[in-house]
Amino acid sequence: MIGRIHGSLLGVNEDIALVDVSGVGYEVTVSPVLAERLRRLGNGAEVTFVTYYYLQNDPSKSVAILIGFESEAQREFFLQLISVGRLGAKSAIKLLTTPISGIARAIELGDARRLQTLPGIGPQKARDIIAKLQGKMGRYVGIDEEEAPLPERFSAEAMELEDEALEILLQLGYSQADALRMIGEALARAGEKIESADELITEVFRSKPHSDD
């Protein structure tokens, strides 16, 4: 099984990167985010992929597929995704149209509407992903990745607002998992009405029971 590939980039065709390794050309399937980054690097660049190898079974044949990632953490996130029922490897790699950190955050927040902006993710699939993975995504929220175009609900403004609220809750002594859950619940209640971190924090504590004096 192939676990890592290093070579010279020959080109990128949609979601397939062709890599020359000692004269042998390997076709490596990559996410839309990584494909765009590779195009910016240009042909001839040296590249290294951590890979996932699987057989795609069609009625008449099995096709070997090699999927490439920039880091072990990204591959681990992908493996978490394909643990969700009826979410195969091919579908999982294609939905990575935004950095993993944003998707992980949406899962931790329980933000089904945000997940539905990703390709192939409808309401039921978004609920399945949250049910399976919520509470397991904390380590991927801060994962380092190259910048990439963001869908509207993954906008920099929305994520900055959530980051500010998260920092406040962490300073108050809440764990990251609890803070993300509280923010997610607040966003589910108020949604589009929230326009600042202060409003989000106010909504977070609005529903918390007060201690008796």
Looking at the structure, what is the overall shape? elongated
Helix amount, in percent? 40-55%
N-to-C SSE series? EEEHEEHHHHHHHH
**Sheet/helix structural class:** alpha+beta
Strand order of the largest sheet: 3-2-1-4-5
* Largest beta-sheet details: 5 strands, antiparallel
Instruction: Tell me the β content.
Output: 15-25%
Low-confidence stretches: 147-153
Assign the CATH class of the largest domain.
Mainly Beta
Mean pLDDT: 84
Quantity of strands, as a count: 5
Q: What's the domain count?
A: 2
Assigned CATH architecture of the largest domain: Beta Barrel
Distance between the termini: 64 Å
Our count of helices gives: 9
CATH topological fold name of the largest domain: OB fold (Dihydrolipoamide Acetyltransferase, E2P)
Mind explaining what this structure looks like?
The chain has helices at residues 32-41, 72-81, 89-94, 100-109, 112-115, 123-133, 156-171, 176-190, 197-206; strands at 4-13, 16-21, 24-29, 46-57, 62-69. Strands 3-2-1-4-5 form a 5-stranded antiparallel beta sheet, covered by helices on one side. It folds into 2 domains: 4-133, OB fold (Dihydrolipoamide Acetyltransferase, E2P), CATH 2.40.50.140; 155-206, no CATH class. Helix 8 crosses helix 9 (197-206). It has 213 residues and is an alpha+beta fold. The termini are far apart.
